[in-house]
Amino acid sequence: MSGQEMTTSYSTQRSLPREPQFMHGTPGTIYILQNDGLRQGLYKIGATRRSGVSKAMELNRDQQQTIPGSYECVFELHTKDCGRALDEILKLFQQHRCGKRNQDFYNLDLDNAAEKIANIIALINRQGIIQQQQTLSMMRHLIPDEPEVSHAETFSPPPPGLFRKALNWVAS
Asked: Would you tell me how many other CB atoms lie within 10 Å of the CB of residue 11?
């Protein structure tokens, strides 16, 4: 393989979409994980469709994990669009990034980071609700109005003698 081919395959590999782009529009959980094998204040931030606790357990079971220690979920919050939320969060904390590119470790104050993440998620959830309401409003305009029917008009009493027959059948 020539040097040009190696460069091409490496640049193609780097341009592949990251996980949050696959998760845009997907409800899920944003989590912060702490690893006891790493220095204090270094956290892994990510998104999953499950819970942060289950993601920590998955990473702890991974035999290929090169990072020593075990993960513990120290923060998690559900969002209506975890891909978009994670993109916004990673942009916000990009200057605090540490380690390899695909590991998403950040040197942060946990309380401050949790507050900022909660604010981003609240904004995204609010925008999602507004979009749903607008979509429903548009759909209502497309559906023709049906005349309202009262339940009194649709109710018809049973034929005479039906209850008497039922009572006789139960009594016998």
From this structure: 9
